[in-house]
Amino acid sequence: MDKIMINEMPKHVGETVRIGCWLANKRSSGKIAFLQLRDGSGFVQGVVVKADVPEELFATAKSINQETSMYVTGTVVEDERSAFGYELQVSGIEVIGEAEDYPITPKEHGTEFLMDNRHFWLRSKKQHAIMKIRNEIIRATYEFFNDRGFVKIDPPILTGSAPEGTSELFHTKYFEEDAFLSQSGQLHLEAAAMALGRVFSFGPTFRAEKSKTRRHLIEFWMMEPEMAFTEHDESLEVQEQYVAHLVQSVLKNCKLELGVLGRDTSKLEKVQAPFPRITYDEAIEFLHEKGFDDIQWGDDFGAPHETAIAEHYDKPVFIVNYPTAIKPFYMQPHPDRDDVVLCADLIAPEGYGEIVGGSERIHDYELLKQRIEEHQLDPEAYAWYLELRKQGSVPHSGFGLGLERTVAWISGAEHVREAIPFPRLLNRLYP
Question: How far apart are CA 8 and CA 6, in angstroms?
């Protein structure tokens, strides 16, 4: 008898198999018990028919508590009524670990209660589906960049400077020195790109931003590619191809999970490159036409502004060439204007906001030195970064994709806190 995972059942139709699983839920009549079983790879219904099993086994099936762990033996059969397409006709149950008073029941629970019990909430069908979609996005990311000759680089998490030049950093002591938790791996990736050409990182980043919106986390994960000999427009092409690849990979490999979440996949099917592009100037004009008189040229966009722009399109949209004054020091100026830079934010549809931010980087030594001075940054902290421009500098570009915002958008999750296993929010460091 084979011990298999639930997701392997399609290969074992008609066979008697054994699975290690937990009881997610159950219901029963006088003669049949229906057990909702999960093992991490998926969910399947186990059917226990009183007339076909020993009396003791049927009594066990009716009495086991939610989240009790067990080995279940049974025959795999096809079931067209099930979203999974298969069920297990149970012939044996071996209890491993009993569960009592499991806190998350099939009834409705408040958000704070669910967050306090996040270590259990992850077991639920919808949270399981979101985590599977997150995993597929990560897998597809490695596939995309590896297929295009990028090299995975791991930048440091402890740094002595701030890539964005902001004060929203987590400070710590590094022996006798001051250090910060990284808010981006970009600067170190630029150095790696000068060595390896095309690189990318995937790791945690930290922003000490006191925001409570559904788009913000204190700790989140970023995909950050950096490309030598690459100008802004070339980078935009990589960005739209990458995002389209993620969406299409999820559509292909996570159909069951998208169904569990009730996601409208027709909207995702439209996400094909190329994406529309508008300038910051055009975005301001559009917002004024829509009655947003609060936004003026030189202001950064808030959630309502991004949502209004996104609703005008049926796929992600690039907003390019933001004002120099509201962007970080390292962005390359526009060749024909000194008031905007060569950058872009990619805004996701359906109100999920910015999911990608990128730019061409300044490669001229004197200009970058001037920008560092204008932003009143510590020249010693950025000395190594500046030195890159003196040793064979080249035009180069890069971007960062926020994993959790992307997961939330593709899965249709209401809040980014559901897009990461254990969210760190403004007032939450538990569990």
Answer: 5
pLDDT in tens, 351-368: 999 999 999 999 999 999
Do 279 and 327 belong together in one domain?
A: yes
CB 216 within 8 A of CB 206: no
Burial (CB count within 10 angstroms: exposed 0-12, middle 13-18, buried 19+), residue 30: exposed
Give one DSSP letter per residue of 160-212, joined into a string: SS-TT--S---EEEETTEEEEE-S-SHHHHHHHHHHHSEEEEEEEEE------
3-state DSSP assignment of residue 403: helix
Rounded to the nearest angstrom, the gap between the alpha carbon of residue 117 and the centroid of all alpha carbons in its chain is 21
Domain span at 394: 119-419
pTM over 0.85: yes
What CATH number is associated with residue 240?
A: 3.30.930.10
3-state secondary structure of 304: helix
Residues 241 and 141 reside in one and the same domain? yes
Q: How far is CA 254 from CA 125, 146, 248, 362, 417, in A?
A: 14, 21, 10, 40, 20
Q: How far apart (Å, rounded) are the C-alpha atoms in residues 9 and 76?
A: 7
The pLDDT score that the predictor gives to residue 165 is: 56
Look at residue 109 and tell me if it is in a domain: no
Mean of per-residue pLDDT scores for the chain: 96
Q: Are residues 43 and 92 in the same domain?
A: yes
Residue 166 pLDDT more than 60?
no
